[in-house]
Amino acid sequence: MIRLVFLIVTTAALMFAGCSHEAETSAADPVTISADVMKVESKVSPREVEVYGTIHAGKEATLTSRATGPVVRVLVGAGDIVKKGDVLIELEERMSGGQLAQAQGALAQAQAALSVAVKNYTRFQSLYKKDACSELELDMARMQYEQASGAVEQASGAVQTAASVADEAKVRAPFDATVVQTMIDVGDLAAPGRPLVQVQSNAGREFVMQIRASLVDYMKIGDEIHIRLNNPERLVEAVITEVAGGADPATHTFLVKAVLSSDDVRAGVAGHALIKSEAEKKLLVPANAIYRIGGLELVSIVDGEGTTHTRAVTTRASGSGMVEILSGLTGGEELVINRTGPISEGTRIEGLR
Can you give the CATH number for the domain in which 147 is found? Predict the structure, then answer.
């Protein structure tokens, strides 16, 4: 009997406590705020495909010298900025200078021989008019003159060649550039065809990519594209300047180049070009509708009674301040936008627009 009474009293106490809690809860008014709300709708827009590529300098050159000789001075190092015509590497000039002296000596001999041949040919012409020599003797004098003239031209060409080779003893920058690397040291023997220094232009940057055949028809010369760079992460504009006419037989891809609108990007940086292909339906919402907590992307949707509910989504950048909803929303939801921070679950929204 005592146990029964205790049970009844305990049950009554619990029921009273529950009723009191409900009364307190119902008495508390939910938080109400004013916010902008938009309806999530699907829009038909071109599908964007990301294509991997790398940044290249507008001009790249690996410099060599036609002269042969030991290196006596290396005037630059990796990262140095040089102007067109600046001397980068100097070779010993004894060998090239000796070749030039030999060519100049040969030219002097040829010119002396030509002077004698001219006088001799003139003399035989005068004698032939007076019937003082035979026609054969005149022809021989003419032949000697023409041979001497040819020898002078040949020697002059040799001097020009030797002079240009002598000038090759100084390796100069072909354009305003940054030195990528030097590939020879003082004392090394430079020879024709041996790489000495590699440079790349300071102005002009190209994004080079390999496009699969299914996408190449969506890329035309003059089209503007966006490129998302990886390091540092940023979005830059580019204009397509080259589309290969045929595919690489090994990879079955097409080479495409696009000139960047900005030169302040280092060559070698990787990125992804955003290529628009066939149209598809997308859920696009303003980026300011998304807030992040930890690794989650969250939005607040409003039900028919004006109460907010938090929902996790996954997104992808779409440009122009918009993001594409990949999952978490299906369309038709009322979404809070222009938000400045998290909104508590159950918050009521007024002043919808």
Answer: 1.10.287.470
Q: Is residue 7 assigned to a domain?
A: no
The whole-angstrom distance between residue 247's C-alpha and the CA centroid of its chain comes to 21
How are beta strands 224-230 and 270-286 bridged, if at all? antiparallel
- In-domain check, residue 43: no
Locate 336 and state its tokens. 């809070």
Chain segment 187-210, per-residue pLDDT in tens: 898 888 899 999 999 888 999 999
Residue 334, number of CB atoms within 10 A of its CB: 17
The rounded distance, in Å, linking the Cα atoms of 30 and 34 is 13
Nearest to 241 by CA among 208, 280, 196: 208
Does 70 sit behind a cis peptide bond, omega within 30 degrees of 0 on the bond before it? no
At 23-58, the pLDDT tens digits run: 344 445 668 888 888 888 888 777 778 899 999 998
For residues 214 and 274, state if they share a domain: yes
Structural domain of 53: 49-59+203-278
With contact defined as beta carbons under 8 Å apart, do 78 and 182 qualify? Answer: yes
Before 232, cis peptide (omega within 30)? Answer: yes
For the chain, the domain total comes to: 3
